[in-house]
Every structure is written in C-alpha cells, then in structure tokens.
Amino acid sequence: MEIFSSLKQTVYQLVCGNQVTAVITQTGELFIWGSNVNGLIVKFMKSWSNNPVKVKLPGPVQQIAFGRGHAMVRLADGKIFMLGEK
User: Fold this and answer.
1) Domain range holding 26?
2) Which residues contact 30 (CB under 8 A, 6 or more apart)?
3) Cβ contact 40:20 at 8 Å
4) What would the pLDDT profile of 9-60 be if each residue is shown by its tens digit?
5) What pTM, to 2 d.p., does this model score?
6) Which residues pair with 61 in a beta bridge?
7) Cα-Cα-Cα-Cα dihedral of 14, 18, 85, 59, to 10°?
8) Domain count, the chain
9) CATH number reported for the structural domain that contains residue 35 in this entry
10) Can you tell me the distance from the alpha carbon of 63 to that of 1, in angstroms, rounded to the nearest whole number?
C-alpha cells in the first residue's frame, strides 16, 4: 500500500478508529492520519490529514486504542497518554 510504503518503516500495529487510522512502527513511533476534529493528531492543525503525521511522545509507543474523539496510548515504559478530546 502506498501510504505504508511512504513511512519507510516496518509496521508493528495498525489500528482504525472512527475516521482515523494509526500505525505503530517496530521502533515505537506513532503515526496517525484521518480526522483531526478533536485535536487527536496534533493541536492547531487542519481538521483532516491524508498523510501520516508523526505524533511526538516521550518514549516508544507500544499500544494505542481509540475511543469517541480520543485515543489512549501506552508507552513501552507503561506510561499512559490521552490524545484528543479530554
């Protein structure tokens, strides 16, 4: 798939939510694209991204789960972060 080949990394996990998709790479980087209505991807960005956007977090990502307007992210060290609507 074109969108994954543009990452130039091996995808470890693929997760789909409501109008949003995320991948975690084998190195623990998180990329999200799709709807940004609730600031899920990054704040101060347009409401939609057709291309993967790297989400900067303080460590490697191990898991992500989407809820309604938010996502919960677990880092390799066990810390939990919430993205999006709070």
Assistant:
1) 2-84
2) 22, 23, 24, 54, 55, 57, 61, 64, 73
3) yes
4) 788 899 988 888 899 999 999 998 887 766 665 554 567 778 888 888 999 9
5) 0.82
6) 75
7) 0
8) 1
9) 2.40.10
10) 22
